[in-house]
Recover the amino acids of this structure.
């Protein structure tokens, strides 16, 4: 709870505690179907209707040619393109440390997707690691409604067919 | 376009916190220093100003540049604020260059500042991370050190860059700063100490990452006529370039390398570019600046470089973007000793020590990174190098690059979203 009155931190120079807070009405606008999709266990990218460039993080117009894109369902399995484990973070995420960030590459997509990797064993993290998407049971309508876990490489639905260190060529 | 000269500069000491001065007073100090350094100059010769600071969140004051404008007594002359993330200072410098080059002004002041100490470090990190896509990136764990860590992880994978090579950058820049009284964090380090400092985001440790700062810097840019009248040793700005890339790292393409004059397509036959391992905007900025300045072999034609080393990794990545070495050779470049200062003992074996000093000032890693001031600070250090006045301004000439003829300054924002390169030359 915010204290009543002004908290004085120093008198020379005079330093006071100053609180600031704000609520937004945040619209996902044209990206709304992506966030709704997460609540249904679907990962939606977008594909250019003209040049077929495929975005793993959706955008409604193509960055390559400017044409409109169409929604494009991504596979729920991919590979770790790069990674880091954060032991510190912005204040909002400090309590979640350590956490692992990855960029995911998908077969048939030209760009990547930023997400968290959970459930990886220490030392098990590497570029090329096959990963599978997991979804929150109760959606918060944030991009964190999806995260990834290491895929069982022997399981047929999570089998990795692409060489792990080369990013797939344009579809 | 007409020639543009830098005729003076000033910096406040960068510090963790300056609670006794607000941003106006910090800029005023740097401004007064710059004006004192050119006694024949008078503020009546100033036609206008460009102000730079990065974050309204940090400052907790919108239109803060207007408050500086009036504090300096520059009203009602033209003024505007430039904001471009970490490259704010570099963009401000180029904006002042544009004002003079276009003939709109004969003299333009570029001032920049940041007061980052008003919030705790982790809140500050959160503010900075708001300069990533707030729908798709920030909520996942918004943290710039994490983003750069992912970029260098991929650089290590593509090229075999090592954490020890990154640590050498930290050793170099912190040791250079021992001779720079403006720096915030000068110290002697070993590779082992860098690696053993607390891990922030694998593979980056505390000593791989610059700190937040309070500080200000001022550059005075002028036409040839004004420069000749008031300044004994003006420095000519012979090239400016800038570039950009997609806000989301995830959206960066995997295509062909943008080539510099000394490179060929076959050098990079198998490299998918820029991916997340390189800064395409930095390469574009360098290409444009080299073109304007007539530079064909940057590694041989520059006397020194002040570049945006917010991370040791980004210094290595930037060697490559600037064409000081080829893509993939950045790690070997630092190991060779080329970017170290001659005559400084780093406690390292450096076969080619000092051929092309990079960040002789100590860079962001050691000077600090008060965002809006940073790119202008680099310009001031470069200006003093090219004037040969490092000894006068820093109180010792250890960091003076001998016979400095041509310097490069490089300012960089948000995982490479805006990058500027400017070339300065001694007259
Ligand atoms: Zn297209």
């Amino acid at each position: 709870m915010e204290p009543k009155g002004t908290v004085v931190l120093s008198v020379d120079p005079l330093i006071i505690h100053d609180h600031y807070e704000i609520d937004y009405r945040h619209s996902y606008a044209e990206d709304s179907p992506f966030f709704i999709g997460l609540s249904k266990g679907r990962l939606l990218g977008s594909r250019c209707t003209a040049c077929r460039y495929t975005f793993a993080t959706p955008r409604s117009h193509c960055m390559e040619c400017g044409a409109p894109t169409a929604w494009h369902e991504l596979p729920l399995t991919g590979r770790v393109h790069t990674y880091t484990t954060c032991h510190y973070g912005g204040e909002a995420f400090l309590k979640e440390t350590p956490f692992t960030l990855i960029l995911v590459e998908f077969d048939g997509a030209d760009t990547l997707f930023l997400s968290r990797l959970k459930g990886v064993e220490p030392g098990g993290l590497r570029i090329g690691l096959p990963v599978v998407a997991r979804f929150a049971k109760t959606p918060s309508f944030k991009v964190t409604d999806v995260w990834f876990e290491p895929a069982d490489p022997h399981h047929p639905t999570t089998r990795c067919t692409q060489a792990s260190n080369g990013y797939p060529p344009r579809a | 376009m007409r020639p543009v000269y830098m005729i003076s500069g000033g910096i406040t000491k960068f510090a963790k916190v300056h609670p006794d001065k607000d941003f106006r007073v910090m800029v005023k100090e740097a401004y007064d220093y710059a004006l004192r350094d050119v006694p024949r100059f008078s503020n009546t010769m100033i036609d206008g100003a460009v102000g730079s600071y990065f974050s309204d969140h940090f400052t907790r004051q919108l239109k803060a540049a207007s408050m500086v404008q009036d504090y300096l007594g520059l009203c009602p002359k033209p003024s505007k604020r430039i904001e471009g993330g970490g490259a704010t200072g570099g963009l401000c410098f180029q904006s002042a260059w544009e004002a003079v080059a276009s003939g709109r002004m004969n003299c333009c002041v570029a001032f920049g500042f940041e007061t980052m100490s008003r919030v705790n470090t982790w809140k500050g990190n959160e503010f900075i991370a708001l300069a990533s896509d707030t729908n798709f990136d920030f909520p996942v764990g918004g943290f710039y050190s994490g983003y750069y860590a992912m970029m260098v992880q991929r650089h290590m994978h593509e090229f075999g860059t090592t954490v020890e090579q990154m640590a050498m950058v930290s050793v170099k820049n912190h040791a250079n700063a021992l001779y720079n009284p403006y720096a915030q964090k000068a110290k002697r380090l070993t590779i082992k100490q860098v690696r053993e400092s607390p891990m922030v985001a694998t593979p980056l440790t505390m000593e791989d990452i610059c700190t937040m700062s309070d500080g200000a810097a001022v550059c005075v840019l002028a036409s040839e006529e004004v420069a000749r009248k008031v300044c004994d040793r003006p420095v000519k700005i012979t090239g400016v370039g800038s570039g950009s890339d997609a806000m989301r790292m995830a959206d960066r393409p995997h295509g062909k390398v943008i080539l510099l004059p000394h490179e060929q397509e076959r050098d990079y036959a198998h490299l998918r570019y820029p991916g997340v391992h390189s800064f395409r905007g930095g390469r574009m900025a360098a290409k444009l600046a080299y073109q304007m300045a007539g530079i064909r072999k940057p590694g041989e034609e520059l006397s020194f470089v002040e570049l945006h080393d917010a991370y040791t990794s980004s210094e290595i990545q930037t060697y490559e973007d600037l064409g000081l070495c080829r893509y993939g050779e950045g790690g070997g470049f630092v190991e060779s000793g080329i970017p170290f200062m001659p005559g400084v003992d780093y406690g390292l074996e450096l076969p080619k020590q000092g051929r092309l000093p990079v960040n002789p000032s100590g860079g962001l890693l050691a000077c600090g990174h008060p965002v809006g001031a940073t790119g202008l600070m680099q310009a001031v250090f470069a200006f003093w190098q090219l004037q040969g006045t490092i000894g006068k301004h820093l109180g010792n000439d250890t960091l003076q690059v001998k016979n400095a003829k041509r310097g490069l300054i490089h300012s960089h924002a948000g995982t490479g979203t805006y990058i500027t390169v400017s070339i300065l030359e001694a007259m």
